[in-house]
Amino acid sequence: METCGGDPVKAAKTLQDANIKAKVKIVGFDVDHEGQQQLKKVAEAGEGTYTTVSNQSELQSEIVEKWKPSIGQLVWTQGVTLVDTYNAMKNMNDIYNPLYQLSTNEKIRILDAVRFLMSEKLITEETRAQVSELANQMDQIRQEEFKKIKDEKETEREAARKEIEEKVVAWKAKWQ
After folding, report:
1. Helix or strand or coil: residue 7?
2. Sorted alphabetically, which keywords does the UniProt record give (predicted)?
3. How far is CA 162 from the centre of its chain?
């Protein structure tokens, strides 16, 4: 019997009308006739099914056996695929490579400007050497920082991949 002051049939119908593509599957355990009728209406409104069970064995059979993944699902569930790994690495490189290139280009522009100023005798050799050294140092600092961030993100990606793989292996083991 509905005891929460709501309308479960209306809620199941709203779920279906929202185009969520959910199925309301209800297993009634030790439910009287009137309660079964209510649960059937909720399941129908949710485009699902209602089943009644009377003991633990029937409950086990209804849930585990009917909801158990097929052999095909077990075989084809791989976790993180090679394509997923490749795409994640490509996305990282799509961010990292332009940063690397921009930093290198900035250093080259500074060094070119310093050479030009030197050739026009607008700065001394000592100033040229100092500015060139600073440009190289700044480039190195940026490159090290970019690499550090890339390595951290790569470590996070690999940890996430391992976690997903472990969950998939555990899920498969549960059902085999």
Report:
1. coil
2. Coiled coil
3. 13
Q: Which residues contact 13 (CB under 8 A, 6 or more apart)?
A: 45, 46
* pLDDT tens per residue, range 142-167: 999 999 999 999 999 999 989 998 99
In degrees and rounded to multiples of 5, residue 162 shows phi and psi of: -65, -40
Most confident of 11-15, 18-22, 130-134, 168-172: 130-134
- The residues spanned by each domain of the chain are 8-68, 76-175
- Contact between 53 and 20 (Cβ < 8 Å): no
**Residue 61 CA, distance from chain mean position:** 33
What whole-number distance in Å separates Cα of residue 155 and Cα of residue 148? 11
Query: Rounded CA gap, 86 and 97, in Å?
Result: 16
Angstrom distance (rounded) from CA 12 to CA 29: 20
